[in-house]
Amino acid sequence: MELREVHVEGIALDRLYALIGPERAKAFAATVAHTRAELQDRTIWNINSTATGGGVAEMLQILLAYVRGVGVDTRWLVIEGDAHFFEITKRIHNNLYGIPGDGGPLGTAERTHYEAILDRYTEDVLAMVRPRDVVILHDPQPAGLVAAARRTGAALVWRCHVGIDTPNEHSDRAWNFLRPYLEAFDAFAFTCRHFAPDWIPSDRLSVIPPSIDPFASKNVDLDAPVVIQLLQYVGLLAGDGLQSGARFVRRDGSSAPVTRHVELFDTGPPPVAGVPLVVQVSRWDALKDMTGVLEGFAAHVAPASDAHLVLAGPQTTGVADDPEAASVLHDCLERWHALPPEIRAKIHIASIPMDDVDENATIINALQRHAEIVVQKSLAEGFGLTVSEAMWKSRPVVASAIGGITDQIVAGETGVLLDDPTDLAAYATALRSLLDDPDTRHRMGQNARQRALDRFIGDRHLEQWGQLIARLDGRT
Fold this sequence. Notes:
7-stranded mixed β-sheet; Rossmann fold; alpha/beta
């Protein structure tokens, strides 16, 4: 096996400056200049387990493009593994979220296999990484590469995007598995402070929430007529739509038409454009609770409203490090089939193609913009980029009061926080209240966009990384 490099084109930061205003732009430019000087002739290596699907891959695409755009050499490498490796790392992932997952062991045999897969990349790491480079390993999958990376003389950072608000026996088990690797890192970047176990040294811990790029395909402004035509074309709304797909701009500046259609499973014809839409877009992961979103809507909203629900996720073959996706999707479809026909007609389950990540993002962008309400009813969540994405599009969000979601939503101002994500009646009450009150939806949506601009745009994110690297240089 070889480490696979993901090509990222640089993007100039100028377009961010016009958005964030002169004072904020001036402060950010100073940070950029200092960080660039610190990193002269050095490379920042990011290593994770997938180039597509999920928030980590999306975030890396954008952040690394901006970093390259200011003249810092940053590279993105992806590890591969066999099915058992990803079973083990998915087990760790679920345990870090405080749930048993498949209930399988994390013992000596699992550690041996985990290390055996990662050992295959030792020679690649030693050949690529130089002394004083910075290596950032993302989440549990590549954490075991720390021994090889340490031999290069580089500075080492572990970036953790997942965690649980209150530790339990499952999260403790995952941390016990990871601890021998993590103790060798120079610094740690967590999405939320309370995700970090108490044995992580506070002077090596940074808290860096993720961010969105307003100019990416998933977030760029789209006119309402284009949104409807695009959704009709791909099959998420009824109608003829365009003869050919709307055009979208890729990360490298080129444009292309939307040509692929979503796979709308055997959940009946799509809704018409005038029907209010409630949408959850996420990976087919049990922790995203797509089945709970479906069941709460079916029991409490569909019988009393003309609104429709769309559950949308990526092709189950499009996320290499998530072996449970097909099972979760199958569960959703089984529960849909068990509903009465008149309720089934208001619920739609869709798979969005992953062949082109920018095309996929454009379809999601249109779907979120057409929604009256965006839902993120996760049972556990690291951050939940879909929340900030919807906020940027001026949409109120109904979401669980867990993880990084609570850092994004101000309850009653930018959306609704659900204290208990398993309380389907409370979730449905929040939906019905917003569906019946367009003035509140509009007010929350406007507040949400401003909060996304203030807190969750890339300049803040990159500035925090610049500060971490400056502190790292003082320790290594």
